[in-house]
């Protein structure tokens, strides 16, 4: 048994570790985040074309203004990978869309269907436009009704005439 209190213990370097293996480990660890964000492309160009066609109809839930085909977000890449896996499992395009809607809601579709739960989404912009136009019309009408001509008193007219006729002006 070694007495650590005396400080006479000698530590030998680990023979497996050297500078080369340490640098390899650091390089691999640094490269892992970049490797994981690269989408895995299908080897079959027909399958990849089908994946991209489907990906253009699905909204990226992170970016929200891009399809998963355009987005490089991790979630978009995961969804594309999931679409590839479902295609490889023999699922149809409608089955894949239905699965995505079931899991993420109608918002995942880039062109959601018109139904009761999406009426606000479809009718909201038109309703806001009509409200804005109505408010504008009411404001214009109120300003027209408020326009009254105010006439100057004789004293104000004389003072204005004097100011205009003065040589200092």
From TrEMBL:
Annotated TM spans: 119-140
Protein keywords: Cytochrome c-type biogenesis, Heme, Iron, Membrane, Metal-binding, Signal, Transmembrane, Transmembrane helix
Domain CcmH/CycL/Ccl2/NrfF N-terminal intervals: 33-164
A Pfam family annotated for this UniProt entry: CcmH
UniProt family annotation: Belongs to the CcmH/CycL/Ccl2/NrfF family.
Role played: Possible subunit of a heme lyase.
Name of this chain's protein: Cytochrome c-type biogenesis protein
Organism per entry: Viridibacterium curvum
